[in-house]
Design goal:
The complex is a heterotrimer of chains A (235), B (204) and C (249).
Chain A: H1 14-31, H2 33-54, H3 58-80, H4 83-91, H5 93-98, H6 104-118, H7 120-132, H8 139-165, H9 172-199, H10 205-234
Helix pairs in contact in A: 1-6, 2-3, 2-7, 3-7, 3-8, 3-9, 6-8, 6-10, 7-8, 8-9, 8-10, 9-10
Chain B: E1 2-11, E2 14-24, E3 29-33, H1 40-48, E4 55-60, E5 63-64, H2 70-75, E6 76-79, H3 91-101, H4 108-117, H5 133-141, H6 143-146, E7 151-155, H7 163-178, E8 182-186, E9 199-202
Chain C: H1 3-10, H2 14-46, H3 60-87, H4 90-122, H5 130-151, H6 155-188, H7 202-234, H8 239-248
Helix pairs in contact in C: 2-7, 3-4, 3-6, 3-7, 4-5, 4-6, 4-7, 5-6
The chains are: A mainly alpha (235), B alpha/beta (204), C mainly alpha (249).
């Protein structure tokens, strides 16, 4: 037999890597449907806790709506982040992923995209429904949903860096929250600010543009940082 | 050709092994032995590029290796302790996933053939969570049929395998070596490779 | 070879940097004490009372240098982290590890003195203004860095992971500052702001600069002492560290 069979595999491209990870993680997520629902349920419960805590005065709730809905989204995204890498780390798949000829940032991007499609995206689409309970209406709901659609991917991207840094550590989830929440602050400010701006009758264009810019920046930088962190964790 | 020069490794602050040197030409296999904790896994991980050595260096085809460098990732196939199987995927899906991760073909016929070599035809459509330890190990090893790489790094591949499984492993390994491949294998057990095949390196 | 180049790399090993750090600590401590003495005398005794705030404003001679240093130390820490990742250098990582507690302390001092100033000046300890809110988030960034280091047992992994975190943090700090500024102007307009310091007489400016340098030299001195302790702990298995510990007893 010739040596052709033993030629090293050619260096994998980036897009096939993204596709591999996206396809695999989505199929795995759909196999365990229970986990998909927990996310949304958690979001709904947190949002419901606020009126229970501060009273049901419509004017008050209307004023607090954007903040409550966004903070709850941040917390709900924190809940699902540890699972992004931890399961693969535990069963040895993460090692194989890191050793693949496909670029690790590409594979991680695929995982993050799958994560967002199963956590952030449904949450963003559910949010207008919950926002009705707080008295938001019309364009305010649209700005809320659009802001969350733009912001939650960034939360997943930044969260991936934190999840990779805290892989396998005892302190786990709480440490992840401490590391990531300060980085979430700009997203929270612009996202909630967009809804507030809409409420005040000004346009939300500036805030939404900033969210989009943050998404682009995170989309480029976060997979690289997460790849470095994964390699450090596997060392 | 794989060459190690004065390789040394640590875990935490404890030294694992020191000044390990070897040279493997195409067609040669190195069998690592030693008590638990002597650094067999660490040596394999260094060769795979997962971790850095504390001293010395490793050369693959004359080029010094570094952790995660692209050349090493394209040339080596590392199968560690953990079988890297997803409980929710069937044996066939797991094999397809792992094989395509390393750029190999995953058409149905090839997958079926690979699984039958490792006596897993009956378990093809079963989720990995119901497979026995031996079946999980064999599913993990089945990718050796599909992913063609010059360098094999196997950590305890014969663990949980029965005599038939060990024989399949030996056959697969022999075929790889005959094609000019190189292998480094950490193992507690004797592999039925035939007398005189393979050099031994005992750590610690 | 350029002799300056050789000189620099000679100090890249913990063992040879250790005695240098000891000498630097003494020099910078003395300098810090002198500068602080003069600065505090100028600020507390010589500078005139403010027309609106009376003597309460004098806390800025601690508050502002502390705030400046809290940000500066984070930048320096991130620079050491970048070096440790690029050159795989243990000592650079140890310097970053030594800087973090001092930076966090300055942040706490800035927040605390800011609150103490806020009460007499504007009637409230905490006014959610942009600067103080950003300072609070900076404290979380420091604490996160220290917590991550603490949580990882393997020193090498701790060095590298916390370095990645610090670099991600330093990139985000301007973004966070900008967003908090944005948030503040939206919600509060130009109301309470601790940037509304009294108009600076030259003497006040001088005092503040002296205090800033004093804080800087204090930071260096303390960091040198701390890095010596870190070096001893992490290099405890080497011969020279054992000899040093033996001689010290």
């Amino acid at each position: 037999m010739t040596d052709a069979a033993l030629q090293p595999a050619s260096d994998g491209g980036a897009w096939p890597g993204v596709a591999w990870a996206l396809r695999r993680d989505l199929r795995l997520a759909l196999r365990s449907k229970a986990e998909l629902g927990v996310q949304l349920l958690f979001y709904t419960i947190i949002v419901t806790l606020f009126p229970l805590g501060i009273g049901a005065d419509p004017a008050l709730l209307h004023a607090l709506a954007s903040g409550v809905l966004w903070v709850a989204a941040l917390l709900a995204s924190l809940l699902s982040l540890p699972r992004l890498f931890a399961v693969d780390f535990a069963d040895g798949t993460l090692e194989q992923i890191a050793l693949s000829p496909y670029p690790l940032p590409a594979l991680i991007s695929g995982k993050i995209l799958a994560h967002w499609l199963t956590t952030g995206a449904p949450l963003a689409l559910l949010s207008p429904l919950l926002a009705l309970q707080f008295g938001l209406q019309g364009l305010e709901l649209a700005v809320l949903a659009l802001g969350l659609l733009l912001g939650t991917p960034t939360l997943s991207l930044l969260g991936a860096v934190g999840a990779a840094l805290t892989l396998g550590l005892r302190a786990g989830g709480a440490l992840l929250a401490l590391l990531i929440l300060p980085l979430y602050v700009p997203i929270l400010i612009f996202g909630a600010g967009a809804v507030e701006a809409m409420r005040a009758g000004l346009g939300a264009g500036a805030e939404l543009s900033l969210l989009a810019a943050a998404l682009l920046a995170a989309g480029v930088g976060a997979p690289l940082a997460a790849a470095a962190a994964v390699r450090i964790a596997l060392d | 050709m794989l060459e190690a020069l004065a390789l040394s490794a640590r875990r935490g602050s404890a030294a694992l092994f020191d000044a390990v040197s070897f040279r493997l030409e195409p067609g040669q296999v190195l069998l690592l032995s030693g008590p638990n904790g002597s650094g067999k896994t660490t040596l394999l991980r260094i060769a795979a590029g997962l971790t850095e050595c504390a001293g010395g260096w490793l050369e693959w085809r004359g080029v010094r290796t570094a952790p995660f460098d692209a050349g090493l990732r394209s040339a080596a196939l590392f199968i560690g302790h953990a079988p890297a199987l997803k409980d929710d995927f069937t044996a066939e899906e797991n094999l397809a996933s792992l094989a395509s991760l390393h750029g190999a073909t995953t058409d149905h016929a090839a997958l079926v053939a690979a699984l039958s070599v490792w006596s897993l035809s009956g378990q093809r459509a079963l989720p990995a969570r119901v497979l026995s330890q031996g079946q999980r190990r064999r599913t993990s090893l089945a990718r050796l049929q599909l992913v063609s790489r010059p360098l094999w790094l196997l950590d305890e591949p014969a663990a949980a395998l029965d005599a038939a499984g060990a024989a399949t492993l030996a056959d697969t390994l022999t075929a790889h070596l005959a094609r000019g491949g190189i292998a480094v294998i950490a193992t507690h057990q004797d592999l039925p490779l035939g007398a005189g095949v393979g050099r031994s390196l005992r750590l610690a | 070879m350029n002799s300056r180049l050789v000189n620099w790399f000679r100090y890249a090993s913990p063992a040879s940097f250790f005695p240098l750090a000891g000498r630097l600590a003494v020099w910078f401590a003395v300098a810090a004490a002198l500068l602080a003495g003069v600065g505090l005398w100028l600020g507390l005794v010589v500078a005139p009372s403010d027309a609106q705030q009376g003597d309460a404003y004098r806390i800025i001679f601690i508050h502002v240098p502390a705030a400046w240093m809290s940000m500066f130390v984070y930048l320096v820490m991130a620079a050491w982290c970048a070096m440790s990742l690029t050159f795989n250098a243990r000592l650079s990582a140890m310097m970053a590890q030594a800087l973090a507690p001092t930076g966090a302390l300055f942040t706490v001092i800035a927040l605390w003195t800011g609150a103490l100033w806020g009460r007499p000046a504007w009637g409230t300890y905490w006014a959610w203004d942009a600067r103080m809110t950003s300072e609070l988030i900076l404290l979380f960034l420091y604490l996160g860095y220290m917590a991550l280091r603490q949580a990882i047992d393997d020193p090498r992994r701790a060095d590298r992971a916390s370095a990645v975190l610090a670099l991600v943090g330093v990139v985000n700090v301007p973004i966070i500052y900008f967003s908090v500024q944005w948030w503040n102007t939206l919600h509060q307009g130009a109301s309470v702001s601790l940037t509304a310091a009294p108009r600076m007489a030259t003497i006040m400016l001088t005092a503040m600069l002296l205090m800033a340098f004093a804080a800087w030299f204090y930071a260096i001195a303390v960091t040198m002492v701390r890095v010596r302790a870190i070096i001893l702990e992490r290099e405890r298995r080497t011969a020279w560290a054992g000899a040093f510990a033996g001689a010290a007893q």
